[in-house]
Predict the 3D structure of the following.
Amino acid sequence: MPNRCIRPGDNPDLTKERETCTFDTDELAANLYGSRRNLERRREISQKVSADPDFADPIPHEFLSREKAVDATAKKSKVIFQKWKNLVKPEEMPHLVNEAVGIQGFPLALHHAMFLPSLNSQADDDLAAEILPRAKAYEIIGTYAQTEMGHGTNLRELETTATYDKTTQEFVINTPTRKAMKWWPGNLGKMSNYAVVCCQLIIDGKNLGPHNFLVQLRCEKTHEPLPGITVGDIGPKIAYNTTDNGFLALDNVRIPRRQMLMKHAKVSPDGTYTPPIHAKLNYGAMVHVRAHMIYSHGHLLARAAAVATRYSAVRRQGRIENGGPEVQILDYQTQQHRIFPQIARAYAILFAGQEVRDQYAKTLEGIANGQADLLPDLHALTSGLKSVVTFMGGLGIEQCRMSCGGHGYSDASGLPKLYGVQIGGCTYEGENMVMLQQTARYLMKGVKWAEQGKSLSPSIAYLGKKSGKSLIGLKGGDITREHEAILETLEHTARRLAIDASQLWEKRIKGGECKERAWNGVTVEMNRASRVYTRLFMARSFHRRLLSSPSSIRSVLSDLFSLYLHYECVDMAQHLLEDGHCNGGQIQYLKKRLYEDLTTLRPNAVSLVDSFEISDRELNSVLGRRDGNVYEALFQWAKQSELNYTDVLPAVKNYMMPMMEENRSKL
Ligand SMILES: CCCCCCCCCC/C=C\C/C=C/C(=O)SCCNC(=O)CCNC(=O)[C@H](O)C(C)(C)COP(=O)(O)OP(=O)(O)OC[C@H]1O[C@@H](n2cnc3c(N)ncnc32)[C@H](O)[C@@H]1OP(=O)(O)O
Ligand SMILES: Cc1cc2nc3c(=O)[nH]c(=O)nc-3n(C[C@H](O)[C@H](O)[C@H](O)COP(=O)(O)OP(=O)(O)OC[C@H]3O[C@@H](n4cnc5c(N)ncnc54)[C@H](O)[C@@H]3O)c2cc1C
């Protein structure tokens, strides 16, 4: 079957891997990206970026100081948002940015991810008409400033205030304490001249909770901070170092009334407050990012899996049989067990990410028509997915990094930076433990609705079903029936964990605790229920994709799905066993099936990651390069280290040589 990555001059081990492929890699890539046309566009963009001298990197970013890296990123961003702006569709923009700039952030990241979405969904018609065309034309750059030094999670306790002054029809925006400074917002420090700032709305001394306001931070001509505004960069971080995450203090800055984002909640000139149709519509920008970050995090894991798989096919170390040749490390079962589940999870996350984006679009349509009834379901799902996927992705990338041995520790592999970027997602857009509790709140309602026989939305319909006996291992032979048996077992487990958590909670309440304290006593169990609900959704979403896939890729997707299910079940064995729904024999059966899956997938491993269709430039990894010629490339990469600009470093000349000289002269 064709693997279209084969080229003359490639590492022969990689070529051999590609020759054993049993499916058409282009078919799978087209399915992943939605169509052949999308796949071709993806390639076209990759090729054009590589050929554009404006995007050329004289030396890799890894060797640049932070300031120089920020500079290079800003320069490329200007090219993207001027020269390239009309050459790509909005949905192609993330790929263009990844290709041209990389994953560590760029000056307009928050402008796109949160500033524009906030204005689009929360500004009233007047404000939108005035500001959106300017923002879309990049006449101004904006960000989303919500988190403060003292509070990120608990938005109700944010301290920044917007106090309405009826006499002038203005809001007075103020940072009352040091810890009330906005702290963390991306692109706030140096790039943005505007921000959507989240403040407690105060009218006639009454606090009406967090609301969003458009605030100009810097002069449009000089880019100097405006009077009353203190703004800057918070310093280096684990990753995202080309992003100027910032701080901001506002000293009684006045803005006109109409700069409150008033599509949903409104303040009239006389100070009358009208609440929104759903209390949390002000939180819409967060739901937007949570709904979109699932897919992009799937892509980060896909990159790591591509690096680890290709490198493991090229790397030869040790022998399996005495006297045999040194083997490709991909032939070790431990290596396969480390890497193949990451390939499967990356596909699963990408599929789930595509489904949740569609669900977000439907919810938004409803809200535009005055219907917010889909929002609770979407909030529960995006909260669960963002938590599970970012954690899974972090673990997966770290497994991939370790699977590359010493070279995985080098920035040449691209993996340390990938890990740093990925794990940021465990914290931003709501700390994972906190967001899982949001999901759990919804599940607790679902358990009650199911008890009362009420209708349940599709994502929690399983709560209303009855459990039968687990048929895992008892439906021998037929893979379709085995998949169904496992999905039913996962449904049972998700339901059982939600009901157990609900009963534990009720027991504590009956024991005399207030609801909230009782909740805190059961949150570990609540979060377990949320994770399994989310993992069930991911498995179901993968299954839907498998069932709708064309026959040409059905078999390889089915193999991958089997591995996914078997791995997830073994990973969750404790939950499957706890109530006796599965027995030890069934877990042993799942393990046996998992080891068989590793062998089945082995010939297609490289081709499965080739179908992620990530260009060398985007992958930015010496170990993961398509042609597999890693050793020469490693040496060329290291030669660019600034420590190699001279043979004798000043540090050696100034300190080490005199020390050695002094010690020699003492003899
Ligand atoms: C060219 C394009 C390129 C794009 C490149 C993009 C690159 C992007 C890279 C971006 C990187 C980083 C960006 C990061 C940004 C940020 O981090 S912004 C800050 C995010 N902050 C948070 O997420 C804070 C987390 N906290 C909260 O969300 C809330 O405070 C919390 C939900 C935890 C609690 O809120 P409360 O108001 O106290 O509400 P609560 O009492 O718990 O719940 C009441 C009720 O409301 C429901 N609820 C809560 N939130 C929502 C929501 N968002 N939508 C719908 N419903 C919501 C909740 O479930 C309760 O319901 P119930 O029925 O009463 O149980
Ligand atoms: C890379 C990055 C980019 C960011 N970009 C932005 C941005 O653009 N705009 C912006 O406004 N913000 C941004 N943030 C801030 C981010 O949204 C917050 O850091 C995040 O929401 C977590 O809040 P926190 O820092 O207050 O953590 P905390 O809430 O202080 O968390 C600390 C610990 O307390 C626990 N905890 C807190 N509350 C509870 C609870 N109720 N139940 C159980 N445990 C709890 C958490 O689980 C965690 O273990 C960014 C952060 C990062 C790391």
Residues 110, 144-147, 151-153, 184-186, 240, 245, 424, 427-428, 430-431, 433-434 surround flavin-adenine dinucleotide (ligand 2) (CB under 6 Å). The domain at 280-455+478-628 is CATH 1.20.140.10 (Butyryl-CoA Dehydrogenase, subunit A; domain 3).
